[in-house]
Design goal:
The chain has one domain. By secondary structure, the protein is mainly alpha-helical. It is globular, with a radius of gyration of 17 Å. The relative contact order is 0.25.
């Protein structure tokens, strides 16, 4: 019951982040800059430290999650470029946008959301204290994940209805992950390898997709500042949690 309640809190935090993204879509370039900073901070200050901590405690060679990180990065790159090339004949290749790319990005974030819920459940298998600490960290950055999911969808020209659907899926994933953790015990080493894969996905989305587009049409000091602020905020969230 505790795992379920905490994952519900994580889902609510994601919904609040998505709501804020819808409210700020008139200034999408600023929102994208902030989103890129949040994703960069999530990878650098949350996922990678967790991967290395697990690798150290489980005597896992860090090269394995790093291999899956590169695979995740390149896989999203291949998916994105394949979609854009496939539709190049419909219109000249101009804006780096396509609804399917937005969906792919949102799916990657939903996968990370599932792992967040799974992490809470697995942490409670260790002890209540560890589970609570992990839950606080997850809830702290779920707001950013909801914000990011919505902005990825809106930027890539998805209709608001579809963006809301993907937000609901991303919000529900921590609950699914938490309940799934009650069915089996997952090796922490395997979890680290999965985290590396999704870190690669998110790194591509933030650095190679969202950030360049935040500056493609209306770059400003505000956009740059919000990118830095997003990364700094994620650092504070992960440290305080």
């Amino acid at each position: 019951m505790t795992v379920f309640l905490l994952t519900v809190c994580a889902s609510i935090a994601a919904l609040l982040g998505g709501w804020l993204a819808f409210r700020s879509r008139q200034k999408l370039n600023l929102a994208l800059g902030f989103t890129a900073g949040l994703i960069l901070g999530l990878v650098a200050f949350d996922l990678l430290p967790e991967i290395f901590e697990i690798a150290q405690t489980q005597a896992l060679e860090p090269i394995w999650p790093m291999i899956t990180l590169v695979i995740g990065f390149l896989l999203f790159h291949i998916i994105e470029k394949s979609i854009l090339i496939h539709h190049a004949q419909e219109a000249k290749y101009g804006p780096h946008q396509h609804p399917y790319v937005g969906v792919a990005g949102a799916v990657a974030l939903s996968g990370h959301s599932f792992l967040d819920g799974l992490s809470i459940g697995l942490a409670f298998q260790i002890s209540s204290a560890v589970g609570l600490a992990v839950a606080i960290a997850v809830i702290g950055h779920r707001f950013a994940d909801g914000f990011n999911t919505t902005n990825v969808m809106l930027y890539h020209q998805n209709k608001p209805g579809r963006a809301k659907m993907m937000l609901l899926i991303a919000a529900a994933m921590p609950i699914v992950g938490g309940l799934t953790s009650l069915l089996f015990s997952l090796s922490e080493a395997i979890l680290a390898i999965y985290l590396g894969f999704f870190a690669g996905f998110l790194l591509y989305i933030g650095a190679s997709d969202i950030l360049p587009q935040a500056h493609s049409e209306k770059s400003s000091r505000w956009t740059i500042g919000l990118t830095v602020l997003g990364a700094a905020l994620m650092f504070l969230v992960t440290r305080l949690a």
